[in-house]
Amino acid sequence: MTTESAVPAFRRGAKFRFDAVRDAWVLLAPEKLFMPDEIAVEILKLIDGTRSIDAIVDDLAARFEAPRDMIATDVVAALEDLATRGTLTLAEPS
Asked: Mean pLDDT, consecutive 10-residue segments, the chain of 94 residues?
C-alpha cells in the first residue's frame, strides 16, 4: 500500500504530453500509449518528481472543492495503477 508521503515520478522513457494529432493528453512509455481520462490528466499534470501524493491531493481537493478523503482514495488508486503498468515510480521519502 502506498502512503501519501510517497513522491510519484515518471519512469525513464515515460512522457506525459499533449498530442495535437489526437487533441488529447497522452502518457507515453516504451511500447505503450495511455490516454488518461480527465481526472488522471489533472493528477498527472501535478507530478514533478518532488511533490508528494499528499501535496497533490491537497491541491486537487482545494481546486475542485471536493472531500479530501475521496480525492486521496482516487489519487492513490490511479498512481498505484500507473506504477503497476510501469510508467511511474512511487518513492517513499528517506
From this structure: 91 97 96 95 97 97 95 96 96 86
What are residue 29's DSSP bridge partners? Answer: 32
Parallel, antiparallel, or unpaired: how do β-strands 24-29 and 32-34 relate? antiparallel
Q: What is the C-alpha to C-alpha distance for residues 29 and 18, in angstroms, rounded to an integer?
A: 14
Grid coordinates in use for 12?
A: 525513464
Cell, residue 90: 512511487
What b/e string do you get for 48-60 counting C-beta neighbours within 10 Å, with b at 16 or more? eeeebbbebbbbb
Domains of the chain: 36-85 (1.10.10.1150)
